[in-house]
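[step 3/7] fold_predict: job queued, chain A
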Amino acid sequence: MKERLVAVWGMFALHCRLYNLWEEPLSKPRVAVLMGSKNDYDIMRPAEETLESLGIEADVRVISAHRTPGRLVDFLGEAEKTGFEVVICGAGGAAHLAGVAAAHTILPVLGVPIESSPLKGLDALLATVQMPGGIPVGTLAIGKAGAKNAALLAAAIIARKDEGIRANLQEFRRAQSEDVPDRP
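[step 4/7] structure written:
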């Protein structure tokens, strides 16, 4: 019985080495993409997709500054320790998510105002951009363009220390420039 157990263990160990199961742990998310409501996902999806296209893993969550403040504080309390480098927050209306997040972490926080009221996102833009001195939030455009640009800004922050991400970002910019026609 003992010899059989040793043989099975040996085959398992060989299998793990062949497939690099002990070499590198699975990659960890480097960017948190938070939104105040599941209804905001359609607007925030370009952030997730852009990060993925640049080779940056994201953790996408619904966390409300108003309805789940404990969840937000708990998440941000562990975010830096678990490897997050940037937090992107999308919220509409009062749009306190980015500001509350910035108050609970020293990680860069990027805010994406979301159109969700009769004010067409202007309320969310003003709530996100008008932070008191000392609690900075990098504020992007309202909506999907803001979500995409938040991802690109997060990538630029990460690219300062990661040559692979830097190369991916440079390639993105090159391809984007090539896609612009000379004439209509």
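[step 5/7] annotate
The chain is about 50% helix and 15% strand.
Helices lie at 2-18, 41-53, 69-79, 97-103, 122-129, 144-159, 163-178.
exit 0
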